Amino acid sequence: MSIPGPKSKVPAADNTLRILKLLSSRRGPQPASAIATALDLPRSTVYQLLVVLEDHGLVMHLKEEKRYGLGLGAFELSSAYSRQEPISRLGRPLLAALVDVLGESAHLAVLHGRDVLYIVEERAKGRPSLVTDVGVRLPSHLTASGRAILAALPKAQVRALYPNSAAFVTRTESTGGITGYAALSRHLDDVRSRGFAMENGEITPGFGSVAAAVKDHLGWPTAAIAVTFIEDRIPREEWPALAARIQKVADELTTRLYGRAKG
């Protein structure tokens, strides 16, 4: 069934926005033919608009799959929106309450290109300062927050974010074994199976993090909540219980953002 568009005096702009809205509403990349059918547009028009969107980084073309998905530019627009208020304002009191209960520091991050951008940090009393201050960007494949978000993205989208070995930068001697796409893909499979993301020493030696994704009502990752701690303070066998607490807060933030729990 096609999705009719509103009448507009600037049909090209209207149809461009309709394509972006459609791609953002779908779980993964779409063929151009499916986009044309859904929006009741000529295929030639859709192809022309997709080329323009690709030139601006708002759409990426997955040539092997003959599909189109949201590009890095779209993620950056989403991150900019997040920084401007809603997620940080609604998330801050939830993180503060989590820190009060756990006695460990917590932060909220969004995807920004291949990095995660930290938009809220709640530091626990008496705990050391962390590198995850507000406004800091870190490689998403090395952080628990980033891994939680990446694991919730379609695999094709992750592959497009990490097209070659140059995308895999390091911070410390520990990379968690993630130095290429195959290793990253295996790690994200583990995150999905385990139900939460973690990191130990990849960002700061001696520190661990556990994270869960904040998802919208379609299951798309909007952000991630993580708790960071000195590894000796929380035994590894207690990490799943910690993750369950974090996931509960992430689900509450989803409800506050979208008016309902993730579907």
UniProtKB/TrEMBL annotation:
Q: What is this protein called?
A: IclR family transcriptional regulator
* InterPro entries hit by this protein: ArsR-like_HTH (IPR011991), GAF-like_dom_sf (IPR029016), HTH_MetabolicPath_Reg (IPR050707), Tscrpt_reg_IclR_C (IPR014757), Tscrpt_reg_IclR_N (IPR005471), WH-like_DNA-bd_sf (IPR036388), WH_DNA-bd_sf (IPR036390)
UniProt-listed PROSITE patterns: HTH_ICLR, ICLR_ED
Record-annotated membrane-spanning stretches: none
Per the database record, which ranges form the HTH iclR-type domain? 10-72
| Domain of life from the UniProt record | Bacteria
Organism annotation: Arthrobacter horti
Q: IclR-ED domain: from which residue to which, for each copy?
A: 73-259
Which keywords accompany this UniProt record?
DNA-binding, Transcription, Transcription regulation
